[in-house]
Write a structure and sequence with these properties.
Chain A: Pfam families: Sigma70_r2, Sigma70_r4_2. The complex is a heterodimer of chains A (163) and B (203). Chain A has 163 residues and is mostly helical. Helix content of chain A is 70%, strand content 0%. The chains are: A mainly alpha (163), B alpha/beta (203).
């Protein structure tokens, strides 16, 4: 079995992208931390042929729900999303416009987009993670992407033209 | 169907690698795992005059010291198989070990005072290694002398094996066991490392 450190190295960045896309910049690191602590506890019992991406995304999915609920209970959350997309090149300041567009999607679509395009899970696995069937997962991802292209990419292109 | 460049553009704002965030998250995971009692093995590397060494500890104490010629990745996989795969690069647990080793290599320490976890050594080999701690700094013994001291004067080859498989070199000083003709003999860290250590202690 691989040392857990290797799992963190190999999959940590992917799970961080998924967490950022699903719960946003403010709560992503809490979701990641909860996910990897939980994964580390269960790791010795993981079957050797397990699909590690799907296993981690399944845990991240549950933790994202917990973190989102906890955030909803917090009084008056401070909005830390930058007003304008960051051009400073600091990777921690990832584009607030993308999160605004993702946040506007129905949860199921946001998850399907993240699990398929960022984690690389097939729709069958996504259905197993978030419920529903394979077709519904495929539709949710397609609808989500369609909306993102309209609400996120188009305005960005318009800004390019306006400059 | 979305094309690959389109997808790249759509998520370009989400970095695929974010080193500062990952460093933060790794440190937090190490703390959380330690607090929750699931950090079964913590490790770090340390740069020394005998190369970069790997140090690993359980909650009982130092469990493994490995030279770079022993292939640190292979050593970590062995620890995963023999102890637990819940292993993290978590330097905090090895602060005191690192400090004492730094002092040793600076010539300011002649014995180690560290809790040791002996679980990777068993039976006669372990008896031999336990005896090695009685060979003082700057002294050497022959393989035959060690065999006699361990109560099995004919087990010279077994003493050699015990030294070669010592899970805790440096701290359990197998480098102080030399050939009867006075030459250094083999060493897990390579013959140069052994000569370096003997020269350090002779100075």
């Amino acid at each position: 079995m691989q040392p857990f450190e290797q799992i963190v190295t190999d999959y940590g960045p992917m799970v961080l992208r998924v967490c950022r896309a699903v719960v946003g910049p403010h709560d992503a690191e809490d979701a990641w931390s909860e996910t990897f602590l939980s994964a580390m506890k269960a790791y010795p019992d993981l079957p050797s042929d397990a699909n590690i991406e799907a296993w981690l995304v399944t845990i991240a999915h549950r933790k994202a729900i917990d973190v989102t609920r906890a955030a909803a209970r917090r009084p008056a959350p401070v909005e830390e999303i930058p007003e304008r997309p960051s051009d400073a090149g600091r990777p921690e300041d990832w584009d607030g416009d993308l999160w605004r567009a993702l946040k506007a999607l129905p949860t199921r679509q946001r998850e399907a987009v993240a699990y398929h395009y960022l984690a690389g899970l097939p729709y069958k696995e996504i259905a197993a993670v978030s419920g529903g069937n394979t077709d519904a997962a495929r539709r949710a991802a397609a609808d989500g992407i369609k909306t993102l292209r309209r609400t996120y990419l188009r305005p960005a292109e318009q800004r390019e033209v306006a400059r | 169907m979305m094309t690959a460049p389109d997808k790249e553009r759509l998520f370009a704002a989400l970095p695929t690698q974010d080193a500062p965030a990952m460093n933060r998250l790794r440190a937090r995971l190490a703390d959380d795992a330690q607090r929750e009692g699931v950090l079964d093995v913590a490790y770090r590397t340390l740069d020394t005059p005998v190369g970069r060494i790997l140090l690993a500890a359980t909650d009982q104490g130092l469990v493994k010291v490995a030279f770079s010629v022993q292939d640190h990745d292979a050593v970590l996989r062995q620890l995963a198989d023999r102890i637990s795969p819940r292993i993290l690069n978590a330097p905090g647990r090895l602060d005191e070990t690192s400090r004492q080793l730094d002092e040793y290599f600076a010539g300011q320490r002649t014995r180690f005072e560290l809790p040791l976890d002996w679980r990777l050594s068993k039976g006669f080999r372990r008896e031999v290694l336990t005896h090695l701690r009685d060979i003082g700094y700057g002294h050497t013994e022959s393989y035959a002398q060690v065999a006699a001291a361990a109560g099995s004067p004919r087990a010279v080859r077994a003493v050699g094996t015990a030294c070669a498989t010592n899970p805790l070199p440096l701290v359990v000083p197998c480098h102080r066991v030399v050939r009867s003709d006075g030459t250094a003999g083999g060493y897990a860290g390579g013959p140069d490392a052994k000569r370096t250590l003997l020269a350090l202690e002779a100075a």
